[in-house]
Design brief:
Elements: H1 13-28, E1 32-38, E2 52-58, H2 68-71, E3 76-78, E4 87-92, E5 99-105, H3 109-123, H4 125-141, H5 146-174
Parallel strand pairs: 2-5
Antiparallel strand pairs: 1-2, 3-4, 4-5
Protein name: GrpB family protein
Organism: Lentibacillus salinarum
Length: 176
Amino acid sequence: MRKIEVVPYDALWPLLFDIEVEKLLGVLSHEILAIYHIGSTSVDGLYAKPVIDIMPVVRNISRIDRFTSGMEPLGYEGKGENGIVGRRFFMKGGDDRTHHVHIFEVGSPHIKRHLAFRDYLRQHPRTAEHYSSLKLDLAAHFPDDMDAYIDGKNRFVQETEQKALAWYRQKGSSQG
C-alpha cells in the first residue's frame, strides 16, 4: 500500500530530474524533441510527494511502445495510456515511487496544460502556498487513501489549471 507523504521542497529535485533525463535519453534519444520537469517537484518552495514528474515530448507517440522493454532496466514499469488518451506513462519505484514519466506527442493539449500549471505556480507564490497547505491537510487526513487525496486536490487543480491556461495565453500574446 502506498502511504501518502508530502514533504517540504528539496533543492535536490532538479538535480534528480537532470540525472534521470540522461538515463531516459539513453533509451529514447531519437524520439525526444523536448523534455520538461513538471509537477510539484518542479516548483521551488512547493510541498510535494517526493516523486519527480518528467514530461518528454516526442514526434510520434505510437512509436514509444517499442521502447517499453528498454525502460525496464532503468526500473520503469510501463502503464500504457493510464487514463489519459495519447499519453504513455511509466512509473519507477513501485509503492515507493521515485519517478513518473508522462510522454506526449508534440501538439498534445496536455503539454500546454502541464507547463501552464507549473509556470503559473512558479509565478504566483500565494497560489503555490495554498496548494502546499491543501496537500499537507489532505495527506494528514487521508494518509493511506490515494483516491481521497487526489479527489481532494481535484477542484483546486482544475480551477488553477483554467486560470493558468488563460494566464499562459495572455502571457504568450503579450510577448508578441
